[in-house]
Specification:
Length: 426
């Protein structure tokens, strides 16, 4: 019996977020035979799968993506049967899909009814039957059974190195696969791979930056003397929600004002405060959209800015813009921070009171490829995306902060979303 309800179109796979050739090159360079991505960011990056049931973490071990270093075995997405319908409307770009689950479960029983043609025939039913037929030969009861079956099929009994991003899952894998598998942490490998963004990632990061900029503008419009901080925070959060995004942290990270505006403060304390005339307001906004992060900062003054506030702001803006002028593929980040420190010094201010942090951004806010990059810096790569945080912390006026996400190219850097950088007088 046909249904008369509105029917959304059945989707084709979207362009991959990840570059399979780059992944395999890094795997071979590290001597890794098989990459297992299980945490949210790795699963999404490797397969495009990010269903609500996966992100809700109903169970610790729900789904994973498997990518072999060699081209003779297909990368695969392994999911619970509960998520099979999700693959009908948002299919993975990986060539192989494997499903696990108990046939006696309610989801399994419903799938059997659909396969037999029972019930109302909707637009989803035939694609689900096609998926059931496609995955029938590889069905298992448990996720670990599915992983073991894949390894045995494509690697036989030979000893392999398997990189898994969930250290808690290593012992489970050891029990399932035995001593012939050498387990290593996949997170450093994934971070190095993700340092360069694909076109699909750049689209997501740009959209995230657009949403964040709109939410920050909403927050700024709500700032006025004697108004509670909560108005600003709620305006930011509402705009994010309208665009299917959400704040990182409790409220979107740093929204501070006045002499204490350069600290991270308890949000319950902060949101009871009221803005005072003459306050410097820091709006450092961090949001998430489809697991990708946006990070942007602007500074405002309530009322007319004083000469001192204007001077502080000019120093910060000059430092940021001179630093960004030096950003291009092949440049060292430490040299860029030195340029910005010199600009702060030329304005008669103290570089040691200034946060001068370059950080990659993507599936993490501080998406450093190597732990040492935080302290020692690194060399910028073409098609990487970074933020340069210039945050001056003054004991009288509080914080003055500017930053944007910029795309690195051979000739220089450009903002993902160009936004005015003037000192806002609200």
């Amino acid at each position: 019996m046909p249904t008369t309800s509105s029917r959304p179109p059945i989707a084709s796979p979207v362009p991959p977020l990840s570059d399979l050739d780059r992944i395999r090159a890094f795997m071979r360079g590290q001597g890794v035979d098989l990459l297992l991505g299980k945490e949210d960011s790795a699963l999404y990056y490797l397969s495009g799968h990010h269903s609500d049931s996966t992100l809700c973490h109903f169970y610790d071990d729900w789904a994973c993506a498997l990518v072999p270093a060699g081209a003779d075995a297909p990368p695969a997405l392994l999911i619970q049967e509960y998520d099979l319908a999700y693959q009908a409307t948002r299919p993975t770009w990986l060539p192989e899909l494997r499903v696990y689950g108990s046939p006696w479960s309610s989801a399994g029983t419903l799938l059997q009814d659909i396969e037999a043609g029972h019930g109302i025939e909707t637009e989803l039913r035939q694609p689900i039957r096609d998926l059931l037929a496609r995955t029938a030969d590889h069905r298992t009861d448990e996720l670990t059974d599915a992983i073991r079956a894949y390894v045995e099929e494509h690697f036989g009994n030979r000893t392999i190195t398997l990189a898994c991003d969930d250290l808690r899952f290593h012992q489970t894998l050891r029990q399932a696969l035995g001593e012939r598998v050498r387990l290593v942490d996949a997170r450093p490998l994934l971070r190095r791979i993700r340092a360069v963004k694909t076109p699909a990632e750049l689209q997501l990061l740009t959209r995230t930056a657009q949403i964040n900029a709109a939410a920050l503008r909403s927050a700024a419009r709500s700032v006025r003397a004697e108004a509670p901080w909560e108005d600003m925070v709620q305006a930011y959060r509402r705009t994010l929600a309208e665009h299917a995004a959400k704040p990182r942290g409790e409220r979107g990270m740093l929204f501070n004002s006045g002499p204490d505006g350069s600290f991270v403060l308890d949000h319950d304390y902060v949101e009871r405060k009221r803005f005072a005339p003459g306050d410097t307001v820091v709006m450092d906004a961090i949001c998430e959209y489809r697991l990708y992060l946006g990070d942007m900062a602007r500074t405002a003054v309530i009322g007319e800015a004083s000469p001192s506030q204007k001077h502080l702001f000019k120093a910060v803006r000059t430092a940021l813009e001179e630093g960004e002028l030096a950003m291009k593929a092949g440049a060292r980040t430490g040299a860029i921070a030195d340029i910005a420190a010199d600009a702060i010094r030329r304005h008669g201010l103290r570089p040691e009171l200034t946060t001068l942090t370059l950080h990659p951004i993507g599936l993490d806010i501080f998406d450093y490829a190597e732990p040492g990059h935080i302290r020692d810096g690194w060399t910028l790569e073409n098609d990487s995306v970074v933020n340069f945080e210039v945050f001056y912390r003054d004991s009288e006026y509080g914080g003055v902060h500017l930053e944007d996400s910029v795309l690195i190219g051979a000739a220089g850097a450009r903002a993902l979303v160009p936004e005015p950088r003037d000192l806002m007088e609200l």
